[in-house]
Design goal:
124 residues; Arc Repressor Mutant, subunit A; single chain; six-stranded mixed sheet; alpha+beta; globular
Length: 124
């Protein structure tokens, strides 16, 4: 993970996915609320080429960018990782990249493997 100041905010980068052709150009949402903050989420063409990252979380801009070249599953995993950074930021934690990687992957897998739990949590 690389952290740097960009546009007045911390940027945290995700590097673990290999490049594939995705073909899907939009997400079914444009923002995700994390502990009271709406983070704009966008697919960005060439993100990895310009930033050497598959995903970028920006605190100052309340935004998450995901490389559009990733396949759907890699986008989900990367978004889970970046949302874990958002939770980390909102709670004032400093988990470290290895912990964020583990937690992000674990909670995305847990939610995907338990659709009845997700429905119950959502009140359906």
């Amino acid at each position: 993970m690389v952290a740097q100041r960009q546009g007045g905010g911390d940027v945290k980068r995700e590097r673990r996915h290999k490049k594939v052709s995705a073909g899907i150009t939009e997400l079914p949402f444009d923002a995700v609320r994390v502990l009271g903050i709406d983070y704009k989420v966008a697919l960005v063409e060439g993100l990895h080429d310009t930033h050497e990252a598959w995903g970028i979380f920006q605190t100052a801009h309340a935004s998450i960018a995901i490389d559009s070249q990733l396949c759907e599953q890699q986008r989900r995993d990367t978004l889970g990782h970046e949302l874990t950074h958002a939770i980390e930021d909102r709670l004032g934690l400093d988990l470290g990249e290895a912990t964020v990687q583990q937690i992000g992957g674990a909670w995305v897998a847990m939610l995907r493997e338990n659709p009845a739990l997700v429905a119950w949590l959502m009140g359906d």
